[in-house]
Structures are given as C-alpha cells and as structure tokens.
C-alpha cells in the first residue's frame, strides 16, 4: 500500500511509477495547461492523458514550463481504437497498419515533450490501449504497435485500459505493466483487479471519486466517515483506493482541490469501514463511463 504521496510502485519490468497520479481526461486548452501546471507544482509526478483527450500538447508545455526535469515526471497517454461503432460503421472501418499507429504515437512524443521528437530524446513513459475493442483484430494490431514502440525504446512501458480478463489473456507477447480501470466503491471490478494483482500487473483507478456525483459523494456511508475523520467526502473515496493497493487518478481543474486531493495520508480506514464501502459495489450498474469490457469481444 502506498503510504505517502511521494511513494512509488514497482512495475514487473523493474521500473517504478508514482503511487498517486493526476488524471487529465476532459481538460482542454488553457484549462488543461493551468491544471497540469498546478499539479506539477504541487508535487504530482504522474500525469495521465490520451490521444483522444486532445491535451497532450498542453501537458508537454506545462512540463517544459515547470522547470522540473523531464526524467522526474511520468507521462502516460493512450491509443484509442474506434469507440463503440455500430455494426454497419465497423464494416466500413479499415484497421490501420502497425506503422500508422506508431507514427501517431511519435506525434504524441512530440506533443508531450514540447516539440522534441524521438531523435531529439523525446519519449513517453507509458502508453496504454484505451479500451479492449472494438474487435480482437483491432486490439491485436494496437498491441503490436505499442510493443514495437517499446522495443524501439522511445516508449518505456506499455499497458491497457478498460480490459477484462479474457482480453488481457488474448494479448500476444509483452505482458502489460499496468491496467487502468474505472474503480471506486460502486464499481469495483473485483475479479479483474485480483487477476492483475496476482500477476504483478499494477492497477490504476480512474473516476476514483465517482465524478463527485451527488448520490455517491453524498452517500450516508461516505458522509459518516467524512465527518468522523474531518475530511471531504472525496478523500474517503481516495483513501479507499489507496488501501485497495490501487493508484488513484483524481482529476480536477480547481487548484484548491488539486492540492487537497493529495492530503489523504494522515488517516486510515479500519477494516469495518473498508467493508462498509465495499458493500456499496453495484457491479456494472455502478459504471459512469460507457466502456464495459464485458460487452466487448
């Protein structure tokens, strides 16, 4: 379990990754630049992005302007295949060649390294497949591209997001170092989390504060614990993630919340309190995002 904000987690490749991160999904333009700048200045050293988010350039600029050595920051992005196309749309789509995907990843290198290409020392610490669909062929092609980038050395580690056990077991070659999942007390995905942790695959939690949805952040169980520990409700949910050996990726555009989210290491939930939060699990009905690996091939 991560015991301080600055703790790192060891990957099965031998590298390390910060045990607490900042999610940049949904942040655009100046908002993204300001939020990531605030996070970096406040000590965050893991920034999670994705090609689909459209903010890699702002993240690269924030890193460059921070004055923090690039080697001290872990930058993560994702390659995204088509997201839930209809059967008729899927028939018209052509799976890109591996080299086409690799070229796109090199564009991400340039953005995240503020203009530096691979030949100029640019690199990405972690690249994920954004989800496990829409077909096994798309998944395999994406994984081949990520694997090639890793073998060439300018992507340090590769992993996946929104995968279930059956999709994880279908990947050829490299074993993912990390799986990113929607995780909070209402969507716990216990089987895949246990599978990953048993195999030494690190698990990251996105939406760890359940997007501050009123009926969740204001749930009586959460409110009771928040009052007991004199903490905001979101801190109770982040603490749950930490005690589940997950890497939470809270996202916010507010400087005060970015700072506050890191202040969860001065209390600990007891076994009974963790069990009470565990009892909130709704399975797939607890999802707030549309990607459900159980519904993908």
UniProtKB/TrEMBL annotation:
Residues 25-281 form the NADP-dependent oxidoreductase domain. Substrate binds at residue 130. PROSITE patterns: ALDOKETO_REDUCTASE_2, ALDOKETO_REDUCTASE_3. It comes from the Eukaryota. GO terms for molecular function: oxidoreductase activity. InterPro entries: AKR, Aldo/ket_reductase_CS, NAD(P)_OxRdtase_dom_sf, NADP_OxRdtase_dom. The active site is at residue 53. The record marks 78 as: Lowers pKa of active site Tyr. CDD domains: AKR_AKR1-5-like. This is NADP-dependent oxidoreductase domain-containing protein. It comes from Kwoniella europaea PYCC6329.
């Amino acid at each position: 379990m991560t015991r301080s904000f600055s703790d790192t987690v060891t990957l099965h490749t031998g590298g390390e990754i910060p045990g607490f991160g900042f999610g940049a999904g949904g942040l655009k333009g100046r908002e993204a630049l300001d939020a990531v700048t605030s996070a970096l200045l406040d000590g965050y050293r893991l920034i999670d992005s994705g090609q689909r988010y459209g903010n890699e350039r702002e993240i690269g600029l924030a890193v460059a302007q921070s004055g923090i050595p690039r080697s001290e920051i872990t930058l993560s992005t994702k390659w995204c295949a088509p997201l839930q196309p209809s059967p008729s749309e899927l028939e018209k789509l052509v799976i890109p060649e591996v080299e086409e995907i690799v070229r796109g990843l090199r564009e991400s290198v340039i953005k995240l390294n503020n203009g530096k290409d691979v030949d100029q020392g640019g690199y990405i610490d972690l690249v994920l497949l954004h989800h496990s669909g829409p077909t096994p062929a798309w998944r395999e092609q994406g994984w081949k591209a990520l694997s090639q980038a890793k073998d060439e050395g300018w992507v340090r580690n590769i992993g996946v997001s929104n995968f279930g056990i059956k999709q994880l077991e279908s990947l050829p070659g490299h074993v993912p170092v990390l799986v990113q999942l929607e995780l909070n007390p209402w969507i716990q995905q216990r089987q895949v989390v246990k599978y990953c942790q048993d195999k030494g695959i690190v698990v990251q939690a996105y939406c760890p504060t359940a997007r501050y949805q009123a009926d969740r952040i204001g749930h009586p169980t959460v409110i009771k614990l928040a009052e007991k520990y004199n903490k905001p409700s979101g801190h109770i949910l982040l603490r749950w993630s930490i005690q589940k050996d997950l890497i939470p990726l809270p996202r916010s555009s507010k400087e005060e919340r970015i700072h506050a989210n890191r202040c969860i290491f001065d209390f600990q939930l007891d076994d009974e309190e963790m069990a009470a939060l565990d009892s909130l699990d709704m399975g797939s009905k607890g999802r707030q995002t549309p990607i459900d690996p159980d519904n993908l091939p």
